[in-house]
Amino acid sequence: MTVTWPDGKYALPEAVTLAGDTCPKTAFTWDFGMLYQFTDKPAANTCSKGNHLTNYCGNESVRSYYCVKSTPKASSSSWSWMPGVYCIYKVGTTCPDGFTGGNIRWNDVSRGVDPDYNTMPAGTYTGGPTEIEYCCREDGSAANPIILPAESSFYLMKFHGACQTVLGMTVTEESLEWATKEANPITWQDGAHPKPGNTGHNVKIYYCFYQPETAAKRDLGPLAKDAGKVKKELEEVRELVNLLENQLDHGKRVALENKETEAEDRSVESEEEELREDDKETEDEDRGVEFEEEELREDDMAGEDEDKKFEEMVRAMDLVLLLREMRKV
């Protein structure tokens, strides 16, 4: 019986090998996804040397790629993942049978510099901190082999301890660590997830890269005698691509910083304009108070004039009355 990939929706890290494989060879088609992250501190991202991840691990950004199985049952054969100690990415709302869900969250410097696209693992990629959801299990021993298709290379993620043994495959432990905004690692991850996850300053994930035990001979074929040379040339090409992407990301970071500076300058100018308007309103209010005080002074003066007129009228009437009395005499 041909071994197929287990039932359920899930995703795996995308791998790259000399044979040109990225996602595992299957009768069905894996969906493809990519996550772009603008990381916190330049030169703080670390990829294990010689890793086989289809990713870009630069000084200022990280790109990660995924093989996504969106169809729960992709073949007539029906079977489940075997017991062990390992993790996969969650797709949809539930994990495959036997797995427990969890997540890791972190703050990116900026979202939306490059789009995340196609089919992604379950999580949150816009509008706030990034969150990726995982499905992990610990119901067996990592030393007891599980059975998975052994025709091509693939990745699982290490839960903790050692990489899970897979029948007919060699395994190499690799890692990826990227810089994030500082956060509390206790509150920024939940449930079952690859360890250590969010460390408070970075996120670190350990990956398990599996190759068929005869992969080198089968992949290289007649080029086996020149394997070292081919590998070196491929690594040189990869370094060149990384250098070019790093230059591109640096340009994007500078543009983003300039944009943020311009926004801050506009914000300062807006605040200064508001202060000037507040000062003008205060001056207007002061002038209004002065005007009211002037009106009050004028009213007081008018009142004093009326009092004087009244006193003069009283004196005049008194004089008239006095004259009348004198005439009577």
Could you explain how this protein is built, in words?
The protein contains 2 helices and 15 strands. The strands form 2 sheets. Strands 1, 2, 4, 5, 6, 7, 8, 9, 10 and 13 form a 10-stranded antiparallel sheet that branches. Strands 3, 11, 12, 14 and 15 form a 5-stranded antiparallel sheet that branches. The radius of gyration is 39 Å and the shape is rod-shaped. It is an alpha+beta fold. Mean pLDDT is 79; it is low at 216-224.
Features:
2 helices, 329 residues, ten-stranded antiparallel beta sheet, alpha+beta, five-stranded antiparallel beta sheet
Our count of helices gives 2
Give the averaged pLDDT, no decimals. 79
The number of strands is 15
How many whole angstroms does the radius of gyration measure?
39 Å
Q: H/E series, N to C? A: EEEEEEEEEEEEEEEHH
- Strand fraction: 15-25%
Share in helix: 25-40%
The biggest sheet amounts to: 10 strands, antiparallel
Can you summarize this structure?
This protein has a domain at 10-213. It has 2 helices and 15 strands. It has 329 residues and is an alpha+beta fold.
Give the helix/strand layout.
Layout: E1 10-13, E2 31-38, E3 46-47, E4 56-57, E5 61-69, E6 85-90, E7 100-106, E8 117-118, E9 123-124, E10 130-138, E11 154-157, E12 169-179, E13 189-191, E14 197-198, E15 202-212, H1 215-220, H2 227-328
